[in-house]
Write a sequence for this structure.
């Protein structure tokens, strides 16, 4: 005679969904409650949750629902509106609250102000950036342009680096490659 292994309960595949039993209104809690609705052990699970005063969703019941059934007041009051915690609570519930949104936006502005002040202070304390330029090699057309840009014309007349000769040759080659415009008669 063979015996089949007992089938695991549906909640065993997603235990994290059942730890968020603060409210029915979150997306995860609704998914968990749908799993509970199909479970054959829902009554036994609900009883175990009530007797053991468990946290999360047990037998299709959330924590506040279990507390209400047992006549226990919630140890944690709901956060006040107009606070960051209130904003997060409304966000979890998918609700809109103007006072909480304003508090959240004000907190964001304060955070940005502090962050920008820290960045300014960090920039003050940094050494000034020095621009590093690489001098082109002498004897090239770029070397010739370097000498012209930096006012080193004394090096160009009979210089030993050869920049003048190379630069003038490059300029002549460029002029020869350009098509000549005919003078208008």
């Amino acid at each position: 005679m063979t015996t089949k292994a007992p089938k695991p309960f549906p909640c065993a595949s997603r235990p994290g969904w059942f730890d968020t039993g603060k409210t029915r209104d979150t997306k995860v809690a609704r998914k968990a409650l749908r799993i509970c609705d199909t479970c054959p052990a829902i009554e036994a699970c609900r009883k175990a949750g009530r007797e053991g005063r468990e946290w999360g969703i047990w037998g299709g019941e959330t924590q506040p629902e279990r507390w209400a059934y047992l006549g226990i007041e919630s140890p944690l009051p709901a956060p006040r509106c107009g606070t960051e915690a209130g904003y997060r609570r409304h966000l979890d519930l998918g609700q809109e609250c103007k006072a909480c949104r304003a508090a959240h936006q004000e907190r964001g502005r304060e955070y940005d102000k502090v962050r920008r002040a820290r960045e300014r202070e960090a920039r003050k304390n940094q050494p000034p950036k020095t621009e590093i330029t690489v001098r082109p090699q002498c004897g090239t057309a770029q070397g010739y342009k370097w000498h012209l840009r930096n006012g080193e014309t004394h090096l160009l007349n009979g210089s030993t680096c050869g920049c003048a000769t190379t630069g003038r040759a490059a300029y002549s080659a460029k002029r020869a490659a350009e098509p000549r415009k005919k003078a208008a008669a």
About this structure: The longest helix spans residues 98-125.
